[in-house]
Design goal:
Shape: globular
Order of helices and strands: HHHHHHHHHHHEEEHHEEEEHHHEHH
Mean pLDDT: 82
Largest sheet: 6 strands, mixed
Low-confidence stretches: 1-21, 389-393
Helix content: 40-55%
């Protein structure tokens, strides 16, 4: 056992070692060396640690006076339209969401201070997502310190994803897939279409030590948001987080959806006859040039030396595929954090992006008139132009890079030829010849 004299070094180890190190047994000498090292390190840390000048800034203590809560009360009473514009939802929808997430974000008061209420936490999070402000900028709207906002917003986004989980899901049966297909046929004249697929780059700041890992083909740093939507601009699936450096074909091939698609584990309906024909084709998704041509994934023909029939096919595919472009545009215009360069680590940027997608579908169900106001394309069937397409030209939300030089299977080529023939015969729409002329 170590002698009692060793206890003396706990208070003044350096003095003790000067006096008696020469007569100390080896085991005590070893213990003493360890204690001196730890004690010295602790002293160094204490010396380097900056003392907090104030526990809390005086104006932050007056949160009830200076925060946006009073403004929102006034907007709710005198200007409901501005309230909707401020939070992208009306007070009723906000109340429903607050009830759902309160158990996950509510904190207990302490003897030092009162906890920030769930209502204030949700206010701050929605304002961050809809405005694109930084934490420092949002601090002055909410009267909450920037460091605290950094914790609150991520916690609340996690809670939003959990409580709104049911609002993004792939169809689970053939009948559910057929319902999606019926909507595409009715609204966009594309039978046996199960969804439109595309991806966008979400910009982030370069993190120290990451090199070119997130560096994309547009010479910026990003993560990739991949999504599939139905005919009603609702996400069926989102896959977020692939680093921007990965080729866009590589992003798609690494998704959960792609693996299920090639393994035929999505529960898709069996091939069916195209309307008014005996031509049996598989149900398909539609994408652009960033995606490969597969048996269940159609894309436009190459843009070189197209025949009239191929141009008509391209128009019909693009008309249906535009829904995903529309959905991304609505998403980014409502949640403008996606149009800014997110100054957070990629993991937190993923959480924020996914939360925006869940809120998009939630508001599509609960508050569609307010949420979609001015965001849906209106097609002029005489010219092929769309009246509300200005936001789709925003270069901030970058598209995926076109895929070059990838061979397609014989089956995939047969399917695209069958759709091309259908759109130029019994499946033609009256205005398509005017569009491509």
């Amino acid at each position: 056992m170590v002698s009692h004299t060793l206890c003396a070094i706990l208070c003044k180890p350096q003095l003790y070692v000067l006096r008696s190190y020469g007569n100390m047994p080896s085991d005590e000498a070893a213990c003493l060396a360890i204690i001196i090292a730890i004690t010295s390190e602790d002293v160094g840390i204490k010396k380097r640690r900056r003392k907090r000048r104030v526990w809390m800034k005086e104006w932050l203590k007056k949160r009830s006076l200076f925060s946006h809560a009073n403004l929102l009360k006034e907007l709710q009473l005198s200007s409901p339209l501005d309230y909707k514009n401020y939070l992208r939802m009306d007070p009723t929808t906000f109340g429903e969401l607050l009830v759902m997430i309160t158990p996950l974000i509510e904190k207990q008061h302490t003897i030092m201070r009162e906890a920030i209420s769930p209502k204030q936490r949700l206010f701050a999070t929605l304002r961050y997502l809809t405005s694109g402000l930084t934490y420092e900028g949002l601090k002055f709207e909410t009267a909450i310190a920037a460091q605290t906002l950094g914790k609150i917003i991520i916690e609340t986004c996690d809670a939003i994803i959990k409580v709104l989980k049911k609002y993004i899901k792939l169809p689970q049966s053939e009948n559910e897939w057929r319902a999606v297909s019926k909507d595409f046929e009715t609204k966009w004249n594309f039978p046996l279409c199960l969804g439109a697929i595309d991806g966008k780059h979400i910009h982030i700041f370069k993190l120290p030590g990451t090199g070119s890992y997130y560096f994309n083909y547009k010479h910026s740093f990003s993560i990739v948001l991949m999504g599939i939507v139905n005919a009603n601009y609702e996400f069926l699936i989102v896959d977020v987080g692939a680093n921007g450096r990965v080729s866009d074909a590589g992003v798609f091939s690494n998704t959960f959806f792609y693996k299920k698609l090639v393994e035929k584990n999505l529960g898709l309906p069996e091939p069916e006859n195209l309307p008014l024909t005996n031509t049996k084709v598989p149900c398909v998704f539609v994408g652009d040039d960033a995606f490969p041509l597969l048996e269940n994934l159609m894309k436009p023909f190459s843009k070189r030396n197209l025949t009239k029939e191929e141009k008509i096919y391209n128009y019909r595919v693009s008309r249906s595929r535009r829904i995903i472009e529309n959905a991304f545009g609505i998403l980014a215009s409502r949640f403008r954090i996606l149009l800014s360069q997110i100054n957070l680590c990629p993991e937190k940027a993923v959480t924020i992006t996914v939360a925006c997608c869940y809120l998009h579908n939630f508001l599509r169900h609960k508050n569609v008139e307010c949420y979609f106001q001015g965001g849906i394309d209106v097609e002029n069937i005489n010219t092929g132009e769309f009246t509300n397409a200005d936001w789709r030209a925003d270069p901030t939300l970058q598209t995926l890079q076109p895929l070059q030089g990838r061979n397609s299977t014989t089956t995939a080529k047969e399917v695209i030829a069958q759709f091309c023939n259908y759109f130029n015969t019994v499946g033609a729409v009256p205005w398509q010849d005017n569009i491509i002329s």
